[in-house]
Amino acid sequence: MQQTFTYKQKAREMLIVLVPIFITQLALMSTGFFDTIMAGHVSEQDLAGVAVGVNLFFPFWGSCLGIISGLTPVVAALYGGCRHEKITFIIRQGFYWALGLAGAFILLGALALPCLLPLLNLEPRVEYVVKYYLLAMASGVVPIFLAGVLRNFIDALGATRITMVITVVTVPINIGLNYIFIYGAFGVPALGGIGAGVGTAIAFYINLLLNVLVVSRLKPFRDYHVLQGLARPSLREWKKQLSVGIPIGCTMFCEQSIFGAVGLFMTVYGTSVVAAHQAALNFTTMVYMIPMSVSMALTILVGYELGAGRQPDARRYNRLGRGISMAFAAGLAALLVNFRGVIASLYTNDAAVQELIMVFLLYAIGMQLADGFNAPLQGTLRGYKDVRATFFLAVLSFWILGLPAGWLLAHYTSAGPYGYWIGLIVGILMGGIMLTLRLHVVEKRYALSDTASTK
After folding, report:
1. Do residues 422 and 282 make contact, with C-beta atoms less than 8 angstroms apart?
2. Which residue range(s) make up the domain with 315?
3. First and final CA of the chain: distance in angstroms?
4. Residue (of 21, 9, 158) closest to 79 by Cα position
5. How far apart are CA 80 and CA 314, in angstroms?
6. Which residues, in sequence order, are CB contacts of 239 under 8 Å at separation 6+?
7. What is the mean pLDDT of residues 144-161?
8. pLDDT-based confidence at 391, cuts 50/70/90?
9. For site-directed labelling of 429, which of 15, 170, 191, 217 has its Cα 20 to 30 A away?
10. 454 assigned to some structural domain
11. Rounded Cα distance, 136 and 117, in Å
């Protein structure tokens, strides 16, 4: 990364950071996408089983990776301030608490799953797929969390193209492994939806290996020697890092778990609706990678500019990022209107389920526009390290406003299962409005601080 002076230069710098992040995030989220699609072509029960498994696993998985992503603004600010000597120490501490986070994640799943599955009243085959899909996924948690530490280290130094290459290389490997274990090949028995979990877990190990090779072999990463020797664990440093990471992870959990909760509420409408809802949400999540990537790029760029003491440049990046996000959201919404049928056919050959998916995708248009407004604001505030307020606003907008509104619409109007989607859209929009107000407060505070420091 480097200092920029004009909007043209900033746009170029943002695209240099943004495009690889987008491809990386798209590849990461393609895990659930390909798991769902490939299981859907086995049977409706396998699709529903993987759908429920995805709803249970990915909100917690994404939230933990969100906690780890708290390393990005911290390291980016140190990098912008040329405090390179501390970066190695912070990354090594990140390995310790990422391992602890992985252990807690696996333990929580082991304790909660036996209690939760009977409450869902799933068909026996669907419940069987859910259980063993999650068991397979759990075996890949440790490597992907450690890879997350290295990925955030690489991204914070502005080398987002490298993490893009790593992740893009992993995707076809993941697809190939899924094919082998889902449908059976090379003497491996066909495991159906469970095979998606097995293939993905193996791909997580490969992703870690590639990240290790990069930071140990390529400049400038190898100069930090993050893998050479162990640092003494520092609870004080853990507290400082987690004070940034935990609110980010909790915010992501609020966002992702609400989709998981809605997916579980959908079980009362039958297997076909569950499958259609999950297929539409799965595609929407993939498309969400654009505003999410803008958000992550803003975290890096805003953090870098603030670390260098250039608050006006941080504000200009915020305005630029928000414009890019809304432009992409509008363009994708237009494409979604015209290609709903094609998208639905990717997920299933069942005509009835395809029709349901097409209806859900109409509501996905409103969700994309709302996300395009909301996501960049979160990234900018994370660059300012203003993460606690972002978390509380996420709780308010999603769980206190959005989900109750969706439940009321689903149960007391003719909207039925679609009422939940309307509630989600309302929650995202309200969150965006509140984040806008919060950002004005934070920017004003920084401006006053800069004025006082120059006197």
Report:
1. no
2. 7-449
3. 30
4. 158
5. 12
6. none
7. 87
8. confident
9. 15
10. no
11. 16
Q: What average pLDDT does range 350-365 have in this prediction? A: 84
Instruction: Label residue 364 exposed, middle or buried (CB < 10 Å: 0-12, 13-18, 19+).
Output: buried
Q: Which amino acid is at 202?
A: I
Burial 262-296 (b: 16+ CB within 10 A, else e): bbebbbeeebbbbbbbbbbbbbbbebbbbbbbbbb
pLDDT, average across residues 373-391: 85
* Verdict on whether the full-model pTM lies above 0.90: no
The answer to whether the beta carbons of residues 371 and 256 sit under 8 Å apart is no
Structure tokens at 238: 């853990």
User: How many domains are contained in the chain?
Assistant: 1
Find tokens 């082991």 and name the residue: 110
Q: Are 173 and 200 in contact (CB under 8 A)?
A: no
Please give the DSSP secondary-structure letter assigned to residue 401: I
Give pLDDT, residue 134: 92
One-letter amino acid at 398 equals: F
Answer whether residue 252 is part of any domain: yes
pLDDT tens, position by position, 281-311 = 777 777 777 888 888 888 888 888 887 778 8
8 A C-beta contact, residue 39 and residue 47: yes
Residue 153 lies in a domain: yes
Confirm whether 455 is domain-assigned: no
Cα separation, 429 vs 147, in Å, equals 33
238-287 pLDDT, tens digit per residue, is 888 888 888 888 877 777 777 767 877 887 787 778 778 878 877 777 77
Neighbours of 41 (CB within 10 A): 14
309 sits in the region (left: phi over 0; alpha: psi -120 to 50; else beta) called left
Instruction: Give residue-wise pLDDT tens across range 42-96.
Output: 777 787 788 788 778 877 787 888 888 888 878 877 877 767 778 888 888 888 8
Q: Write down the H helix ranges in 117-234.
A: 124-138, 141-156, 160-179, 193-217
Is residue 357 within a helix (H) or strand (E), and if so which, with residue range? Answer: helix 351-383
For residues 418 and 128, give the distance between their C-alpha atoms in angstroms, rounded to a whole number: 28
Tokens of 123: 């068909």
Which of 122-126, 225-229, 418-422 is modeled with the greatest confidence?
Answer: 418-422
Residue with tokens 């909100």: 59
State the DSSP code for 69. Answer: T
Mutual orientation of helices 235-265 and 71-80 as an angle, nearest 10°?
140
CB neighbour class for 205 (10 Å; exposed up to 12, middle 13-18, buried from 19): middle
